[in-house]
From TrEMBL:
Domain of life: Bacteria
InterPro entries, per database record: ACP-like_sf
Protein name: Acyl carrier protein
Length: 79
């Protein structure tokens, strides 16, 4: 499984949405499932999947699937 697939699966699992709903332009608060509580579940899921510890600024900035990918690249996760 590629890192992109792992990231999409993390979003699907944490937000409890279908995998086909996860797209790069999926953004925070544009679907009912991605609220502030789900955002923290998503962060925990991403940290677990990629074995990283995101700093606070990155957690706040993670406003879309595309942005999550960009942030993870700072932690040496290749896409």
């Amino acid at each position: 499984m590629t890192n992109k697939e792992l990231l999409y699966q993390a979003f699907s699992s944490a937000l409890n949405i279908e995998l086909n709903q996860v797209k790069p332009d999926l953004t925070y608060n544009t679907i009912a499932e991605w609220d502030s509580t789900a955002h923290m579940i998503l962060i925990a899921e991403i940290e677990g999947v990629f074995d990283v510890m995101l700093d606070t600024d990155d957690i706040i900035d993670m406003s879309s699937v595309q942005k999550a990918q960009e942030i993870l690249q700072k932690y040496d996760v290749a896409f």
